[in-house]
Amino acid sequence: MSTETKAPANINLIQALNWALHDAMEADENVIVFGEEVADPEGGGVVKISSGLSTKYGSRVRSTPISEMGFMGAAVGAAVVGMKPVVEIMLMNFVAVCMDQITNHAAKLRFMSGGQTHVPMVIRTMTGSGIQNGGQHSDFLEAWFCHTPGIKVVMPSNPVDGYGLLRSAIDDPDPVLFVEHLKSYFAPGIAPERGSKIPLGKARIHKAGTDVTVIGYSRSMLDIPPVAAKLQAEGISCEVIDLRTVSPLDMETILTSVKKTGRVVVVHEAVKSFGVGAEISARIHEALFKELKAPVQRVASNDSPVPYAPPLEAAFLYSHADIEAAIRRTLA
Amino acid sequence: MNTYQPDSETLVDIYRKMTLIKQSDDRVIGAMKAGRMRMPYYSARGQECIPAAISVLLTDEDYLVTIYRGVHDMLAKGLPAKLLWAELAGKATGSCKGKGGPMHLTYPSKGCMVTTGIVGSSMPIACGLGLASQLRGEKRVTIANFGDGASNIGAFHESLNLAAVWKLPVIFVCQNNQYAEHTSYSKGTSVAKISDRAVSYCIPGLHVDGNDPIAMYSAAKTAIERARSGEGPTLIEAMTFRFNGHLIGDMGEYIPKAEYAAAVAADPYPKYRSWLLETKQASEADLDAIDLAIRAEIDEAEAFAMSSPPPDAIEVKRDVYAYEIA
Amino acid sequence: MSTEIILPKIGFSMDEGTIAEWMAADGASVEKGQPLYSLESEKSVQEIEAPVSGTLKILKGTGESYPVGTVIGEIA
User: Fold this and answer.
1) Are residues A172 and A85 in the same domain?
2) Is B219 left (phi over 0), alpha (psi -120 to 50) or beta?
């Protein structure tokens, strides 16, 4: 993949993330990349996000054994002494076999050491339903990590954010879980400006509006805009917020919007119960209960494992009609 | 494995470290029984020789990772007794500001990088420390301590494999005290010797009497030289025994009385002292002076810990991230 | 100056303990390190030694359960 600085007008998220890794490795020799199949002889990653890195940076880029607990711990250890590992977990469900290193170590060492050590690492992973990968290759598990103090959770939805957020995640002094969505990979978008970083913890107003605040991130940012556009034609003005960073939450942007609209819908692909939507809803109710014109609505996936058969997959995930109905409920 | 004969100065240094570990341990338990300190304390009494003999071969640059039963490893590597005691007491002046406690001791300036309370988790982290040194072209080695029980968890196997594949400068030190919490070795472990498991990863596996300072020193030197010269990892199984159960309050009912009595009779600490005197490596006066100096050091550490202030409540907001949380 | 004898925490989940027996009498002279009382907690009984030498004053009797941290006696 190209490492030229002259950007084409439109690229996809895969290319943007590849640029970010190339640029980060070029900028800081402490940046190292490892994970299953990430080096060029093994294909440069399942969807080629790490393509070209090992050819250019040699032993700083390594394909690992299928040994997530081992190499996740190795990332923690390397980070403790100032390396900046970007470690890839091929699919998000596989975090379950290395949770100990993420939640007990990466997230806690700064605190438990009284600030003597810290863990500047990035865990990149991808996931998403809708491509018949079934119950162990499709989950959105971000709530597990949002519930873990000490780690940040970043979930980009487009190439510009993907590039800028990954650069910032690599620069960040604390561990960052960086979740990519399979369906977002191939959606074309505006090319990022090389070197342009986007701060973590800052949401983006995707579309300004006055009637309803619709909050999404990652995959739901593919689904919310068409619904918002449809309702706009009826005169319903949605303000669409892309969180970009899910933890820590940008409550300032959220509350500013909700003060204006008084109505909120949160949309995410992760299952509904005990999820990010619940946290956002709770915080909004705590801060702006009297200013709300309707209860906060959540649109999310069915509380079941991700199914295999296409009709079941369709029934698992929310639909555009669900988003539309939730928005209309806030206006009723 | 070669047998190396350390010089008298090194032998006395090993004694000094063993004395520091033993006296500190005795005094911590005394303070706990007197009600002056409360903590989940996993005594390493009986295992002093292992870190003492290893650490005389290390510099401050070398990395150490250990586990909840790791106070001995940390003291031997150079964690100052004062900072240890203040941490155990949960004081603001502790090495981790009272935020870690006995299971999370850390002191990077002496290479004490991580203490984990999770069985087996020291080893993957050690691989990462070794990877960092390897990529930077440094000569540092990393010592990964763990117990016999940890050799049955996946992290052990993944780490040995990864370290072998990448030829990482890591020495895996299994301190085999023969009990995984309350379960005896043979009930939980399929092999007669944990060191035999090294064969699966095509790395050397050294089985050694961890209570014999010369044998322990020789094994450690062999492994450290191999790691420093870029040849990769070694697994050392150091046989030992813990005298104070899994944690303080454990009365050891699951240990056969004869087995316990035999282990205590073979206590490596007085045995080593006698050996030093018999072989004239040191005089009684020399060793007495060391004992007294360490007694003073622990007196000072205890007084420092007891007189130090507790952490301020604001500390729960700090060190979660680089910035203070709201 | 007297030294307080504090009911210790010497078990994983211990938050209280029972004095099974005082092994020295109230008012007796005790030596540092001698068995002072036996403590019953979490199914185990263990002997606790005198932390210092001096004259024992018993403040809490046997058979009753006290929280960890209770001053059960003094040595003056």
Assistant:
1) yes
2) alpha
Q: Tell me: pLDDT of B161 over 60.
A: yes
Tell whether A113 and A26 lie within a shared domain: yes
Say which of B108, B165, B322 has its CB closest to residue A117. B108
Active-site residue flag, A118: no
Q: Provide the β-strand partners of residue B67.
A: B116
Q: Which fold has domain B8-298?
A: Rossmann fold (3.40.50)
Residue A191: CB atoms within 10 Å: 19
Averaged pLDDT for residues C32-39: 92
In this complex, do C68 and B248 lie within 8 Å of one another by their Cβ atoms?
A: no
User: What is the count of structural domains for chain A?
Assistant: 2
- The range of the structural domain enclosing residue A125 comes to 10-190
Class of domain C3-75: mainly beta
Other C-beta atoms lying within 10 Å of the C-beta of residue A331: 12
ipTM exceeding the 0.90 mark: yes
Could A100 and B113 be called an inter-chain contact, meaning their C-beta atoms sit closer than 8 Å?
no
Please name every residue paired with C65 in a beta bridge, in sequence order, or none if there are none: C18
pTM assigned to the model? 0.94
- The CA angle A219-A200-A38, to the nearest 5 degrees, is 65
Residues of chain A with confidence (pLDDT) below 50: 1-4
**Rg of chain C over all Cα atoms, to the nearest angstrom:** 12
Tell me, what amino acid is at A328? Answer: R
- CB of B232 within 8 Å of a chain A CB? The answer is no
C touches B (3+ CB pairs < 8 Å)?
yes
Measured CA distances, B87 to A99, B10, B104, B253 (Å): 27, 29, 9, 30
Residues of A in contact with B162 (CB under 8 A): 64-65, 67, 70-71, 74
Q: Where are the domains of chain C?
A: 3-75
Name the residue facing B106 among A79, A82, A113 (closest C-beta). Answer: A113
**Residue A83 structure tokens:** 């390396």
- Asked which of A156, A190, A224 is the last residue of a domain, the reply is A190
Structure confidence at residue A1 (pLDDT): 46
Best mutation target, C7, C9, C45, to test chain B (most B CBs within 10 A): C9
Answer yes or no: do A160 and A210 share one domain.
no
Closest CA to B19 of B48, B44, B58, B41: B48
Do residues B273 and B209 touch, judged by C-beta distance below 8 A? no
My answer on whether A171 and A38 are in the same domain is yes
